[in-house]
Amino acid sequence: MEVKQIAESRVRSFKLSDVANSLLIISHSKRGQTKEAVEKLKSMLQLDHLPSNLAITRLVQALGNHGDVAGIQEVESLIKSLGTNLNLSSMVFVNNTALAHITNGDVESAVELFDGIYTSPNSSNASMSFVFRKVLESGNDKALDKLSAMAERLANHFACYRPASDLFLQLLDLDKVDDAKFMLARCNALAEQKEVLLSFVAQKAQSPGQTGKIKNLMSLVPDFIEKEVLYAYLMKCHGRIRQHEWAEAAQGSLG
Q1: What is the spatial distance between Cα 130 and Cα 68, in angstroms, rounded to a whole number?
Q2: Which InterPro entries does the record match to this protein (predicted)?
């Protein structure tokens, strides 16, 4: 019997806290127990309790991994019915619905979904990096070909550059520099997306060992950022390396 069941059998008024319930949803999701996770979410909402954003995200991701489009739609409907702003990006549902379609071998539905998002007003900056990352890591060339063709079409015919920028930066992040170079040649307006490129540099500067990725970007798009700003980010990245080395040395001495 689980700890929760034991506690409830001994203390009639025992109830898990919102934090504990959220952790339970996360645990079920990680184990692929999506049915149990959805039921726990429903029971929380019936009691007017709110799960954490992380719990919702992990549940939706688990449903996406299982190709459960209907399950994602159900969770999205439940969350929307709350009428409460959880500060949760709508792209959590969009991206994982697309991944569910891809998992089911239905890449066309994923493309149609993103087409609808990126050709609608006020959605041109929504990120689909998560989907490109998953597709690249899984080696799903069929899905990658169709999604990259969609991204280039949106860029070249609708001046919507976010999907193409997301793919370009994911290629760089996975050290697929030649693929990124070819993509830039096919869609050279990517070099003008300074805000997205700078965001990538700032993100990489937060972690040690990422200077090579920043330099690869600079080799392909040398003029998108002032040299002084670039050097500041590179110095920050080197500083992270030093901090990491000191932390490892300290841990070694304690051991």
Answers
A1: 17
A2: LRP130 (IPR033490), TPR-like_helical_dom_sf (IPR011990)
What is the domain partition of the chain in residue ranges? Answer: 1-83
Contact between 189 and 155 (Cβ < 8 Å): yes
Q: How big is the CA angle at 127 (ends 126 and 131), to the nearest 5 degrees?
A: 135
Amino acid sitting at position 132: F
CA dist., res. 49 & res. 148, Å (int): 41
Gap between the Cα atoms of 22 and 53, Å rounded: 9
User: Which residue type sits at 229?
Assistant: V
* Token output for 247: 């932390």
CATH 3.40.50 corresponds to the domain 1-83: no
pLDDT tens string 48-59: 888 999 999 999
- Residues 131 and 61: their CA atoms lie apart, in Å, by 11
How far apart, in whole angstroms, are the C-alpha atoms of residue 142 and residue 136?
11
Q: Considering the entire predicted model, what is its pTM?
A: 0.82
Q: What angle do CA 92, 75, 14 make, to 5 degrees?
A: 115
Q: Which tokens sit at 153?
A: 């079409």
